[in-house]
């Protein structure tokens, strides 16, 4: 999404802001954007960061169902538009933010001031950046007794890994999601580090994973869903060994894994926050 937004928004002035959602911490100070120019489109984890010419920054987070689009949503989606940003220049000159479940954020802050956005302030290194080394990843994991899946979702060891890609990376690395992070041996840490990078790069190339709501800026669906090996496949055979994939809750998030390929580290007890697995369960993202 950042790659699609950058050539469209960079250099455009914000000529108007229409807030259709109730004012609150998720939609804060948007009027300050008016009259400022978008200098670039950057990203940290799942946050889109748009520096503005007056020293502010537009911060966007999609939540679970948010979509940024260059065209007016049609049908029922039009009922869930929360913000319209009017822009200078030729069409398309309106950015639409629609978010059915209202978990997203669309607000203006002073550039770099994230005191009211603690998740953004505490993000780990970017997974595809040079700073995300195997050694740094190992140090971070060694400091936590949480289940490795839950620790990944905390965003502290690495930024931007959500539920789908945590399941996929753990499956690729043959790591059980309930293994305490600090108990992962060096070989598994290295395998997981590589798997995180591989699955994210592959998904970006496929424009993401569309399960229901997600669309690209141009309204297209992401196609990585056809390549998922674990997420959403509980009860189906593992593509590696043929064993039935299982579903459990880890950190209150639905988690799919192979009980044969992804075994707990010898001598390790399941970390806190996990529940008994079941063959099937409702999908959750």
Q: Care to give the gist of this entry?
A:
This protein has helices spanning 2-9, 118-121, 134-142, 148-153, 163-173, 186-205, and strands spanning 14-19, 42-44, 47-51, 56-61, 67-69, 81-87, 94-98, 105-110, 246-250, 253-257. With 285 residues, it is an alpha+beta fold.
Descriptive tags:
alpha+beta; 2 domains; 285 residues; four-stranded antiparallel β-sheet; Helicase, Ruva Protein, domain 3; N-terminal domain of MutM-like DNA repair proteins; disordered C terminus
Name the overall outline.
elongated
Low-confidence stretches: 275-285
The CATH architecture designation of the largest domain is Orthogonal Bundle
CATH C-level label of the largest domain: Mainly Alpha
Number of helices: 6
> Which value, in Å, is the CA radius of gyration?
20 Å
Structural class: alpha+beta
Widest sheet: strand ordering: 1-6-7-5
Biggest sheet: strands, sense, closure?
Answer: 4 strands, antiparallel
CATH fold-level topology of the largest domain: Helicase, Ruva Protein, domain 3
The portion of residues forming beta strands comes to 15-25%
Provide the succession of SSEs.
HEEEEEEEEHHHHHEE
Mean pLDDT: 89
Describe the structure.
With 285 residues, the protein is α+β, with helices and mostly antiparallel strands. The protein folds into two domains: 2-121, MutM-like, N-terminal (N-terminal domain of MutM-like DNA repair proteins, Alpha-Beta Barrel), CATH 3.20.190; 134-257, Helicase, Ruva Protein, domain 3. The chain is 20% helix and 18% strand. It contains six helices and ten strands. The chain has helices spanning 2-9, 118-121, 134-142, 148-153, 163-173, 186-205, and strands spanning 14-19, 42-44, 47-51, 56-61, 67-69, 81-87, 94-98, 105-110, 246-250, 253-257. The strands form three sheets. A four-stranded antiparallel β-sheet has the order 1-6-7-5, with no helix packed on it.
